[in-house]
């Protein structure tokens, strides 16, 4: 792939979402799949990674929610063409 293969401009990652983005990116091989394709992230792996991060309960909940938003957006994009 080259930059010409990508139709959209690169997205800016805001500083307050960087941690969630990096965690989401680290889960790129941790999708659960079914007969029709990806169904969602493997939350066992997500929680394990989050446990290592030394987060407060509030940070943990916020990060989990942020990952859920990205997961839903990714699934919408994956199945948009079908």
TrEMBL record:
<protein>
    <recommendedName>
        <fullName>DUF1799 domain-containing protein</fullName>
    </recommendedName>
</protein>
<dbReference type="Pfam" id="PF08809">
    <property type="entry name" value="DUF1799"/>
</dbReference>
<dbReference type="InterPro" id="IPR014915">
    <property type="entry name" value="Phage_TLS_TfmB"/>
</dbReference>
């Amino acid at each position: 792939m080259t930059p010409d293969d990508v139709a959209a401009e690169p997205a800016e990652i805001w500083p307050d979402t960087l941690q969630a983005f990096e965690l989401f990116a680290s889960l790129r091989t941790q999708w659960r799949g079914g007969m029709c394709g990806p169904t969602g992230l493997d939350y066992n792996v997500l929680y394990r990674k989050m446990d290592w991060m030394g987060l407060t309960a509030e940070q943990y909940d916020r990060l989990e929610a942020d990952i859920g938003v990205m997961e839903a957006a990714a699934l919408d994009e994956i199945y948009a063409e079908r």
